[in-house]
Amino acid sequence: MPTVTKLKNFMNRRNFFEKFVGALFGGTALAFVAPALAYLFPNKNFGATGREFTEANGQLIAPDTITEDSARFGMLAGKPAVVLRRHGELVALSAVCTHLGCTVAFNASEKIFQCPCHGGEYDVEGKVIEGPPPQPLERLNIKIADDKIILA
Ligand code: FES
Q1: What's the gap in Å between 84 CA and the centre of ligand 1?
Q2: Does 79 share its domain with 129?
Q3: Same domain flag for 134 and 85
Q4: 44, 46, 66, 105: least buried by Cβ within 10 Å?
Q5: Ligand 1 pocket: which residues have CB below 6 Å?
Q6: Whole-angstrom Cα distance, residue 149 to residue 54?
Q7: Are 14 and 85 part of one and the same domain?
Q8: CA-wise closest residue to 89 among 24, 11, 12, 144
Q9: pLDDT 10s digit of each residue in the chain, 152 long?
């Protein structure tokens, strides 16, 4: 008979309500904690160091695949970045528009970056030449190590 009493206690309305509220708070807490944990322990699906210039799938982009006056888009630590070769040197920029964060595209014929969202335009140095962006594209430090492009 003790099991029947336990079952009655478990199923009474107050007990049910307490468990329901507890689950509700637990779910809410999890909704706040999960993004914080994702931030603290980011997805490592990009380069071994997280500073390597990669495709979106984490595959490394070799420096010799970037030809003169071309732009190669990839990822740096999960954010879009672009590397260009100008006068033989590699130049790296964030590909995130400084207006509202859209990813810019490269117009190879005009040699400018264009933002598809509000028409912002940047030159190959990342300086704003048209539209609403308040600042130039962020310039990234670049170095080549072991035939890998390392950005910072
Ligand atoms: S987000 Fe690029 S111009 Fe607005």
Answers
A1: 21
A2: yes
A3: yes
A4: 44
A5: 97, 99-100, 102, 115, 117-118, 120, 131-133
A6: 8
A7: no
A8: 144
A9: 566 666 666 667 777 778 888 888 887 887 877 767 666 655 444 444 558 999 988 899 999 999 998 999 999 888 999 999 999 999 999 999 999 999 999 999 999 999 999 999 999 999 999 999 999 999 999 999 888 999 88
Residue type at position 31? A
- Contact 90/128 with Cβ under 8 angstroms? no
Residues 12 and 82 in one domain: no
**Does residue 35 share a domain with residue 68?**
no
In the chain, what is the greatest distance between 2 CA atoms, to the nearest angstrom? 88
What value does the CA radius of gyration of the chain take, rounded to a whole number of Å? 25
For 21, the domain range is 4-40
Residue closest to 150 by CA, chosen among 84, 92, 70, 66: 92
Q: Are residues 95 and 135 in the same domain?
A: yes
Pocket test for ligand 1, best of 94, 98, 102, 104 (most atoms within 8 A of CB): 102
Q: Domain tally for the chain?
A: 2
